[in-house]
Amino acid sequence: MVEEELAALARRHGVATRYTDWRGRETGVAPDTLRSVLTALGADVSSPAAVREELERERERDRTRLLPPVVVARRGEAPPRPPGRPDLTVELADGTERPFGGADAGDVPPGWHRLHARLGGRHESVPFLMAPRALARPGRAWGFTVQLYSVRSRASWGVGDLRDLADLAAWSGRDLGAGFALINPLHATEAVPPVGPSPYSPMSRRFAAPLYLRVEDLPEYAALPAADRERLSALGAPLRPDGDAARPIDRSIDRSAAWAAKLQALESLHRLPRGAAEQRAFAEFRAREGGALTMFATWSALAEKHGPDWRAWPAELRDAGSRAVAAEAARLADRVEFHSWLQWRLDEQLAAAQRAARDAGMPIGIVHDLAVGVAHGSADAWMYRDLFAPGMSVGAPPDEFNQRGQDWGQPPWHPRRLAEAAYAPFRDMLAAAFRHGGGLRLDHAMQVSRLWWVPEGGSAADGTYVRYDRDALLGCLAWEAERAGAVVVGEDLGTVEPEVREALAAHGVLGTSLLWFERDDRGRPKRARHWREPSLATVGTHDMPPITGFLHGDHIDLRDRLGLLARPRAEEEDEHRARLADWLALLHAEGLLAAPPETVLGALAAGSDEYDERVVAALHAFLARTPARLVGVALADAVGERRTQNQPGTVDEYPNWRVPLAGADGRPVLLDDLPSRPLPAVDPVRPLASEAGPEPA
């Protein structure tokens, strides 16, 4: 009886008591996991009596409330009638109020309003969003998928920056007919070195990393005398790639060194006086960004003094709204302004990158990437502390490629409290991402539906799923995307429920089709004509080796060396050869690869690279034959890179997110040299440029 009541309480809070694993097996969740998750959600489960009391409170809450915290409907559709059938009126954004219900309920103008419910003597009022029915689908297009930090030019300070992004977009759009450039998250990092390497474990998803600024493009730099410009530019000289194509790579990306040099230069530029027009523009930017910018800049100033993890700060500074924080912000006003100024200049350079993409003919332009979450000690976790669930980390259950599960070390949003805040931080984050881009990729698309919560200190395999209001989150996403005229791509790989993919598609969100994972019901490679149309199709992802490395089984060797294999190496190699043979056979049968599978496999077994470029080209020709709306070509695949950017399951054992772009020979490939380099992967997809153009949903 006790366990049944615990399970019932868990279900009331959207906590899964059972789930289907990656092998299709039904798996129960341990009671201890349920207790930990429910405690993080604010429920008292300290005793059987406490559980029963919590259950009764939940039932009473359902009996007495008239409306949920937020109501979201899609254009042309009326939301479900609340229980008890209260009288409903909608207060429109312009202040007018009218009855709400019946056939005309779906005719409310798009955007945010308020919904009022009255029943007897009770009255409730909540935010109400009329969201788009579905986003318009983009026309067919191809584009590079890029880890921007790895794409260095001779002018960048050791890390690919926003000028490099603008130049990459301009070249690929103008000369190659690319319709977009999909990049890694540019989310904010630590305020001072050292800088964490992962773009997917940021300090803030709302603000960007000044690490990506091009110092020489700042107006303050241009206004300096020549001698001062030379002095500042010299700070980056030790970090710039020397462009010597004969020199093998001997070091990884050093974000900390790059940020230390840029920070020194940026501080010098910030100290320069600003004219009246510039000061007015800066003030307008700060007013537009409001309290969130001020709080982020305050966190940055405090982090310079106390370190990046607010949990280790003096107790009185851990509450972002405290008087002590306000006093420190006033004392550190110059540093608060400096970090606000950095975001202002970032906003301008982000806009310039998107402008360069569109001027080059890209119908979409820059597609930004939204990480699943932020680090525990991050700015966002400090700013919105009450909206995160304590003692929990987001991760993933065991799957085919990560058989021990994953713990990403990121606190999850508290579903109920986020809803009670009308999803404001989520909406602001989306609006910022769309402001200077033509699209957004949702890393781990289940972040809008359910997340795998792992109790801190426990195994990633001992977590469970916690549900969010998918309709509300997708409504917010679709509304912000429609306002920006942008496309949205969801990374719906791995253990994703079918209804999640259906909901994404219904809202006009494209899915992700990954070639190595696309199989039919019999486990065979899926023929091109059977692929999903509303999707971004790629061969691999940043968590897998590039094509050339995959062909040669580099990922098996790496995982074996790092002790990450969950079964004998021989079994991994046998399965890899079988999978590869299936794909080579399909490419050969469709006339995309002239050499028979056994010939290619024999060359690979002998360590030969004779067929590498031909297989890479054939795989992308196959993608071009699918009906997928968007086709992504990893820049790493285009230049023949063999090393993976990220090996899941590792931290320091592998240089994750620090691998500079290189060719198959291990020598550096600089952005400046790309226009003169043969790119066999691009040729098969270039005709897609003629099909680009928005289409109605």
TrEMBL record:
Disordered: region residues: 668-697
Pfam family, one: Glyco_hydro_77
Gene Ontology MF annotations: 4-alpha-glucanotransferase activity
Top EC category: transferase
Transferase found in the keyword field: yes
Reactions catalysed: Transfers a segment of a (1->4)-alpha-D-glucan to a new position in an acceptor, which may be glucose or a (1->4)-alpha-D-glucan
Protein name: 4-alpha-glucanotransferase
Extent of the signal sequence: none
Keywords: Carbohydrate metabolism, Glycosyltransferase, Transferase
Record family assignment: Belongs to the disproportionating enzyme family.
Chain's gene name: malQ
